[in-house]
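Our preliminary data section would be incomplete without showing what the modeling component actually yields. Below, a chain of 153 amino acids is followed by its predicted structure, encoded as tokens that our downstream tools consume directly.
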Amino acid sequence: MKKVNEVESKKIGQPVRIRLHSSIRHPGQEIETHELQATGRLIEKANAFYLKYDENHNGDKIQTTLKMSDRDALIMRSGAVKMRLPFDTEHNRVGEYGNGPATFELQVKTNHLEFTRETTDKSGQFIVHYELHTEGSLLGTYKLNITYMEGTK
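Predicted structure:
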């Protein structure tokens, strides 16, 4: 049996269990909430942490990568949905969302960003509250809370 050294382990990542809770409020509508539980990998690279996992949405696979650091973050999704959302509490950023051939540019306003991690039990939490705007109109207000913990069960 081959032993994986610490450098190799950081490249392939630590298996983690992920719990995602999101709430979305579109203008004039009730709040929608979504829950997701998945297994994925936590990868440490260049003073940032990457959480990678797959989702199944109506039978289609979506690969999600979340880059987390103390000052900013980035969610990238590919597959059935293509999305890139950069988060920065000091500046509004430009993101994009695509479903099929159409892609839309989005303005991302980050109201709150928090990333905490525990090195003892390899767990952590990522929280972001943000608004998405397009062409000067508010699309919605979002709250995302992701927790992860070492393990696969």
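Strands lie at 14-25, 31-45, 48-57, 60-68, 72-79, 82-88, 93-99, 102-118, 123-134, 137-150. The first strand starts at residue 14 and ends at 25. Preliminary results of this kind motivate Aim 1 of the renewal.
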